[in-house]
Amino acid sequence: MGSIFQIILQRLALGILTLLIVSIVIFVAVNALPGDFAQAILGQGATDEAVAQIRADLGLDQNYFMRYFSWLGNVLTGDLGISFAQMNFASNMGGDQLVGVVEQIAPRFKATMFLAGVTAMFAVPISITLGVLAALYRNSIFDRAVNIATLSSISSPEFFLAYILILVLAVLNPIFPSLSNVYEGMALGEKLNRTMLPALTLTLVVTAHMMRMTRAAIINLLASPYIEMARLKGISPMRVIVRHALPNALAPIINVIALNLAYLITGVVVVEVVFVYPGIGQLFVDSVKIRDIPVVQACCLIFAAAYILLNLMADILSILSNPRLRHPK
Amino acid sequence: MSWLMNLILILIATAVVPWVFRFAGQKFTGNKPFFRDMPFAVAFGYVAGLLVLIAAVSYYFRPLEVNGVPSAGVIFFRWAVQGFIGFAIVAYLFRLFGRAVGTAGTRKLFRAMPLTAAFGVLVILLYAIVSIFAGSIAPYGQEEIFANANIVPGGNPMMGGDPNFPLGTDQIGRDIYSRLIYGAQNTVGIAFATTCLAFFVGGSLGFLAAIVGGWLDQILSRAVDVLMAIPALIFALLLMTIASVWSNQLGVDRTIFMVLIIAMIDSTRVYRLSRAVGQNIVVMDYIEAAKLRGEGMGYLIFKEILPNATAPLLAEFGLRFCFVFLTIASLSFLGVGIQPPLADWGTMVKDLSQFINFAAFAPNVATAPLLAAGAIALLTVAVNFVVDWMLHKSSGLKD
Amino acid sequence: MTQQLLKIRGLKIEGKSDEVWSPIVNWIDLDLQKGEVLGLIGESGAGKSTVGLAAMGFTRDGCRISGGTVDFDGVDLVAASAAVKRNMLGKRIAYVAQSAAASFNPAHRLIDQHTEAPTQHKIRANAESELDGMELYRRLRLPDPENIGFRYPHQVSGGQLQRAMTAMAMSCRPDLIIFDEPTTALDVTTQIEVLAAIRDIVEQFDTAAIYISHDLAVVAQMADRIKVLLRGDEVEEAETRAMLSAPCEDYTKSLWAVRSFQRPAKPAISAGATPIVSLKKISAAYGKSPVLFDVPFDIHAGRTVAVVGESGSGKSTTARSITGLLPPSQGHVEFNGEVLPLDYRKRSKDQLRQVQMIYQMADTALNPRSSIGDIIGRPVQFYSGLTGIAKRKRVEELLVQIELEPGQYIDRLPSELSGGQKQRIGIARALAAEPQFIICDEVTSALDQLVAEGILKLLAQLQDDLSLSYMFITHDLATVRAISDEVVVMKDGKVVEQGPKAEMFQPPHHPYTDLLLSSVPEMDPDWLTNLLNGRGVDNIGDAAVGKM
Predict the structure, then answer these.
(1) CA B167 to CA B154: how far, in whole Å?
(2) CATH, domain B176-398, list 3.50.50.60, 3.20.20.450, 1.25.40.10, 1.10.3720.10
C-alpha cells in the first residue's frame, strides 16, 4: 500500500504547487494594470494626500516581491483585503466601518455552494442513469433522441437555456419565481423554490456533459473482453452490469462527476447573473465591471482553488478505485 | 387520500401496461425474437414513449385562443414543433440536393451523412453567407436609430408592430432584424478570427513540443497546465478587467484585447490536443523511417505529420469555435465583451431580456431576445452536429 | 458408443460495415461427438473465431447469424430464447479467450471469477467451488494452487492466466469448450506448458472441444480431427493424421508446404573478409535501465544473420542501436570497417543510405496519406536526386522488383493494399535507397503464413540479385530455418549463442537454444507427447481420478 500513498501525496503536492503558481499568475495579472490602484480607487481629481494615504494602506510603496508575499500571507491567514468600493466610500464619507472582502464573500460563497449542491443533487443521478441507459441501448431510438437533446443542450449558451426555462416555468406556467433573491435565514422550502430555476438551468448544461461522458465510458467498458467473457459464462444481464461493469466503471464515473462539478464553477457565473442570484459569480461580474481589484482577485483565487481541488479529487479517487494500484504485484 | 390512491394506481399501471404490451406483442407476432427477448425496461420505454407522443400531439391541437385570450403555451409549443419539423424537412431536402449535385466525392459524402450532420452543414453555410453579405442583406444599418423605440415584433400595427420593422425595434429605436444580421457578421466573424489565432499559436507550439520533446516540451506543457488550472471564463473575466483599463489608456479597441485574451486562453487547449495528436504520429514507424533517411524538420512537419493530423484538428477546430463563440457571447451578455454600438447577439439578449416577461399575454413580444439567443444556439448546435458526425466517422474507420 | 453433441448445418453469418451487411461465413456444416476435439484452422479473415462463437449461439456486436442451425444436444441455439441460451452458456458450453489478461475482470480475484458460473448456475455452493477451483489449478499445474486464486489478474503472468481461464471454463464441467487461439499471444516456451495443461485436462474430463488456431502444428497436437476454413467456407475436413499426411485440396497443400521453404546453404565465409556490419560489444540503455550487454556479431556481404529470441530479449533494441536511434552507451558499430557515428543525426547522408529498415507493422510503417509513388519516390529523389520522369521510371522499376504491377499501384494509398502488398512497399522503400544492408524487424510475423512465405522468397531473391546483407529479427524459428545463413540467439539483452545455421540446428546446443528449439511445435501429432516424455514432465497427471 506504500506506493499508492506515495502517488496520492505526490498529486496533493502537485495540486498545492499549482495553486501557488496560479496565485502568482493572478497577482502578476492584476499588477499589470497601468497606473496605480490608489488612483484607480479614487478616480480622477482625488487629492494627493488621499492617494498617498491609500497607497500606504495598500503597501504600494513596497516592491512587487514583498507585496506578493504579504498578500499571500494575508490570504493564508484569511485576510483578502478591503474592496475598493468600500474604501472609496470610506475615504469620501469618512467612518471606519470597513467591511472586508472576506465578510463580503462569505455569505455569497455559501449561496453559491447551495446552488451547486442542489444542481448536483439533480444532475448526478439523472445523468448517470441516462448515460448508462443510453450505453446499454446504444443506437436505439432512445439513444439517438438523448444524443440530439444533450448535444443541443451543450451547444446552447447558458443564458439561452435560462431564458427558455424562465419562459416555460416562470412566465407561461408560473411555477417558480424568475428572480432568485435568496437571503440568509430564509426558510429552506422557500429558498429551494427560488433556487430551482438557476439549479435547473445548470442541471441541463451539466447533465448533458456528464451523461455523454458516462455513456462513452460505459460503452468503452462494455466492449472489453471480460464483459463478453461474463456473458459467455451465462451470467444474467443485470449481474453482468452490477458485478462486472460497475466496479470498473466507478473510476471513470467519479472522474466524470468531479470534472463536471468543476465545470459548474464556470457555468455559475452567467446563470447567477440571469437570475440575479446573490452568489459569488454575481459578485465577481459586478466587481469586474467596476474594476474592484481586491474582490476580483479574491473571487478568481476561490474559483481556481475550487477548480483545482475538484480536479485533484477526481485524480485521487480514480487512483483509489484502480485495482491495479490498490493491489500492487 | 385520493392522491395516494392515484399514486398506487399509477405505479400499478407502470408495472402492468408494459408487461401487457410485451405479452400482446408475443401473442400477435407468434413469439418473434424481438418481443420474446425484450427486457421489461425496453417494453417500458416503448410504452412511455408512446404516451409522451400522444400527450404532445393532443397539446399541439389545443385551441390557440380561449375566450379571446391567447394560450401562449400552445403557441410557443406549435412554433417549436413547426420549427423542428421544418428544419428536419429542409435538412432532408438539402441532403437530397447534395446527393444529386456536385462532384463524386461530395456526393459520396452526402450519401453517408446522417440528417443531423446535413442540418449542421446547411446551417453553417447559411451563417457564412449571412455574415459575409450582412451589409447587403440587412435593410438598415446596425447603428441607425429610428424615432420609434420598442416596436413590437410581428409587423402587425394592431398589436403595436410596424411592417417596416418586422422584428420591431429595441429600447433606443434600432431595427432588431438588421442588428441580428449584423450580429452574425460581428459575433461569428470575431469568434472565427479568435479561433484561427488560437489554432495558429496553440497548434504550432503543440506540434513543436511533440517533435522536439525534451525541455521545450516540459516548459510549454507545465506553463499550459498552470494556465488551464484557472477556469476559462473566470480567467477571461479577470483579464478583461485589466484590459478595459489598458484600452482606455492606450486608446485601443477593447474588442481587440478580447480577441487576444480568448485566443491565448484557448490556445492552451489547442496546444494540449495538437501535442497529443503529434505525439501519436511521431511514434509511428514511417516517421522513424523519414528521420533515418535524414529528412529535415520542415519535411517531417508538413509532409509526414500534418496530413495525418488534419482530421482530429478539424474536429477540434469546430469544437474550439463553439467554445470561443459561446465565451464571447457570454462575455458580451455580461457586459464586458463586444462593445456597443456594434451589434452583437450576446448584448442583444441582455438588452432585450425583460421582454420575456410579456410572453404570457403577447407571445410575439418575447421572440426578440429568444431569436438572438437562438441564433447563437443554432450555430453551435449545427457545428456540434457536424463535429459529432466527423468524430464518429473517424472512430468508425479505425475498427 | 459415440454420441453427437454439436451439429451445425448451413451456418451463415453476416457482419455490418458501413451500414451494409456482408457475409463473413457463407456455409459451414460441423459435427462434434462427445469427448472429441476438433481443430479449426485458417488464416485471418477465415471466420474461425466467428464460427467458434456461433457454436455457442453467440455473435459479437455488428454480426448476426443469418441462416442455419446450431444444434447443441437437441437444442437449436440459433432459435433458442435468451434465457435458454444463458442456461447453456458457462454450464454446458464454455469459452477460453485469446487474451486471458483482457478477459479476466481486473476488479475481482481469480477465484471469485472462477466460482461465479457454478454458483450462478446453481451447480455448487460457493465454498465447494473454491475447493474445486484449487483442485483444477493443481491439475493444470499452476504454482501454489491453494493461494494463486486469491490474486488479482494483473498479479499473475500470461501463461498462468491462460491456464486459470481454462480452469474457469472447466468449473461447471461443461460438455464442450471453445478454445479461441489460447496460446497465440504467448512465447514459445510458455506455450508448451499451456498446451500440455489444456490437453491433459480435456482428456481427463473427457470434454469435447473446438480448438481454434492459425498454427497448424499447434492444432496437430490438440485435435482429433481438423477442419480447414478459407474466407468463410470450409475447404476440407479429416482425421488429424490423415490430414497431415495426405491433404486433398490445393489450398491445404499450400498451407502445409509453407514450412518446407528453405534456401540453399551458402559457402562458408572466407577468413579475413571485412564484414559489412560489425557490432563491437554494444551496450545500450533506456534511460537508466540497461537493456543490452556487450552484444557482438558480424554480418557479411550477401548474407543473412537471423537474430532470434523471445519478447524482451533485446532483438529490436539491437536494431535501434545499429541505426543510431538509440545510441549505444558503450561499444560502436563499424560499417565496411569504418566506425559509424553513434547518433543517426551525426551520420552523413551516404551512411544513412547504406542502412535501411523494414518494419513489422506495415500499417504504421507507411504514411497513410501518401501515395505509393510518393512513399517510394521520396528516398529515390532524396538520395539520388532524380525528379520527374526519371524518378517515376525508377519507382516503376522498384515496383516491378517487388512483383507489383506499377500502373496499377503507383497512385494508390496504403489503405487500399493488402497486408502482404504493404509489406512489399516497405521493402521497395528500403531498396529505393540502394543500400548494402537492410534490417528486417519481424517483417513476417504480422502476416498469414502463405503471404509470409511470399515475402521471404522475395527477400531471398533480392538478396541474390542485389547481393544485399540482412539482419533478420524474428521470434519464429521456422523463419530462421527458411532464410538465415548465420544465427544469433539472444536472451535478456545478451547473446547466448551464435554461429552458422547448420551448426546451430545440430546438437550440442546451449541449454537455452535447446529449450527454444525444442519448444517450436512440429507438424507431428505425437510431437508434444514425445517432447514431454523426453523432458520428464508428468504429463499424464492423475488420469485415474477421472471425472469428479
Answers:
(1) 6
(2) 1.10.3720.10
Residue A138, min C-alpha distance to chain B (Å): 12
C267 grid coordinates: 559457402
In this structure, are A241 and A122 located in the same domain? yes
**Nearest by Cα to A133 from B35, B45, B34, B52:** B45
**Pair A94, A185 in one domain:** no
Residue B338 contacts residue B347 (beta carbons within 8 Å): yes
Q: Does A325 share its domain with A234? A: no
A258 and A315, same domain (yes or no): no
Cα separation, C92 vs C95, in Å, equals 10
Taking an 8 Å cut-off on Cβ atoms, the answer to whether C347 and B304 are in contact is no
Q: Do A167 and B244 lie within an 8 Å CB cutoff?
A: no
Q: Evaluate whether ipTM surpasses 0.85.
A: no
Residue of A nearest to B223 (CA): A21
For C338, the grid coordinates are 569504418
Cell of B33: 425474437
A90 plus A234 within the same structural domain: no
The answer to whether residues A195 and A246 belong to one domain is yes
Nearest-CB residue to C352 (from B112, B284, B293)? B293
Do residue A275 and residue A306 come from a single domain? no
Give the domain range for residue A211. 111-289
How many angstroms separate the CA of residue A133 from the nearest CA in chain C? 17
Q: Does 3.40.50.300 match the CATH number of domain C277-506?
A: yes
Number of Cβ atoms within 10 Å of the Cβ of A144: 14
Task: Return the domain boundaries, chain B.
Answer: 2-61, 176-398
Do C4-257 and C277-506 show the same overall fold? Answer: yes
Give me the residue from A225, A230, A247 closest to C99, CB to CB. Answer: A225
* pLDDT tens per residue across all 399 residues of chain B: 678 888 898 888 888 888 888 888 888 887 777 777 777 888 888 888 899 999 999 988 888 877 777 777 888 888 889 988 998 999 899 888 888 887 887 888 888 788 888 999 999 999 999 888 887 877 777 777 777 767 777 666 666 677 777 777 777 778 888 888 888 888 888 899 999 999 999 988 998 888 888 888 889 988 888 888 888 888 888 888 888 777 777 777 888 888 999 999 999 999 988 898 888 888 888 988 998 888 888 888 888 888 888 888 888 888 889 889 888 888 888 888 787 777 788 888 888 888 877 777 777 777 778 888 888 888 998 998 888 888 877 764 433
| Domain residue ranges of chain C, discontinuous segments joined by + | 4-257, 277-506
Q: Are residues A128 and A190 in the same domain?
A: yes
| Contact between residue C431 and residue C395 where contact means Cβ atoms under 8 Å apart | no
Q: How far apart are CA C96 and CA C179, in angstroms?
A: 5
β pairing state of C338-339 and C355-358: unpaired
Edge-to-edge strand ranges of the sheet holding C437-441: C355-358, C437-441, C469-474, C304-308, C486-491, C494-500
Give a three-class secondary structure readout of chain A: CHHHHHHHHHHHHHHHHHHHHHHHHHHHHHHCCCCCHHHHHHCCCCCHHHHHHHHHHHCCCCCHHHHHHHHHHHHHCCCCCECHHHHHHHHHHCCCCCCEHHHHHHHHHHHHHHHHHHHHHHHHHHHHHHHHHHHHCCCCHHHHHHHHHHHHHHHCCHHHHHHHHHHHHHHHCCCCCCCCCCCCCCCHHHHHHHHHHHHHHHHHHHHHHHHHHHHHHHHHHHCCHHHHHHHHCCCCHHHHHHHHHHHHHHHHHHHHHHHHHHHHHHHHHHHHHHHCCCCHHHHHHHHHHCCCHHHHHHHHHHHHHHHHHHHHHHHHHHHHCCHHHHCCC
User: What is the CATH topology of the domain spanning C4-257?
Assistant: Rossmann fold (3.40.50)
CB pairs under 8 A between A and C: 78
Q: pTM for this one? A: 0.82
